[in-house]
């Protein structure tokens, strides 16, 4: 296995991880920002007020995007297993 091949596999796997994590985290980030702006505008300093909407949005992102997330990771895993003979040989 050459160093270039290892770097390519590592780059692809890190890209997949970033893609999957951002699909879950970004909606929660935007909802947290909106709730924080609302709390700043109304001077409400309740910590649980920002937690529950972020939790719900994260769960909804997992529910609606779960099929896509699993498909992406399965496609990558299949592609990685199919490339083993080319990498080794």
Automatic annotation (TrEMBL):
<dbReference type="GO" id="GO:0044780">
    <property type="term" value="P:bacterial-type flagellum assembly"/>
</dbReference>
<keyword id="KW-0472">Membrane</keyword>
<feature type="transmembrane region" description="Helical">
    <location>
        <begin position="51"/>
        <end position="70"/>
    </location>
</feature>
<dbReference type="GO" id="GO:0005886">
    <property type="term" value="C:plasma membrane"/>
</dbReference>
<keyword id="KW-0969">Cilium</keyword>
<keyword id="KW-0966">Cell projection</keyword>
<comment type="similarity">
    <text>Belongs to the FliQ/MopD/SpaQ family.</text>
</comment>
<keyword id="KW-1003">Cell membrane</keyword>
<dbReference type="Pfam" id="PF01313">
    <property type="entry name" value="Bac_export_3"/>
</dbReference>
<dbReference type="GO" id="GO:0009306">
    <property type="term" value="P:protein secretion"/>
</dbReference>
<feature type="transmembrane region" description="Helical">
    <location>
        <begin position="14"/>
        <end position="39"/>
    </location>
</feature>
<dbReference type="InterPro" id="IPR002191">
    <property type="entry name" value="Bac_export_3"/>
</dbReference>
<keyword id="KW-0975">Bacterial flagellum</keyword>
<keyword id="KW-0282">Flagellum</keyword>
<dbReference type="GO" id="GO:0009425">
    <property type="term" value="C:bacterial-type flagellum basal body"/>
</dbReference>
<keyword id="KW-0812">Transmembrane</keyword>
<protein>
    <recommendedName>
        <fullName>Flagellar biosynthetic protein FliQ</fullName>
    </recommendedName>
</protein>
<dbReference type="InterPro" id="IPR006305">
    <property type="entry name" value="FliQ"/>
</dbReference>
<comment type="function">
    <text>Role in flagellar biosynthesis.</text>
</comment>
<keyword id="KW-1133">Transmembrane helix</keyword>
């Amino acid at each position: 296995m050459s160093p270039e091949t290892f770097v390519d596999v590592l780059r692809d796997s890190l890209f997949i991880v970033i893609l999957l994590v951002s699909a879950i985290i970004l909606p929660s980030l935007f909802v947290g920002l909106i709730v924080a702006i609302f709390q700043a505008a109304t001077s409400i300093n309740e910590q649980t007020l920002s937690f529950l909407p972020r939790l719900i949005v994260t769960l909804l992102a997992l529910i609606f995007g779960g099929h896509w997330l699993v498909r992406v990771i399965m496609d990558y895993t299949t592609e990685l297993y199919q490339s083993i003979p080319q990498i080794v040989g």
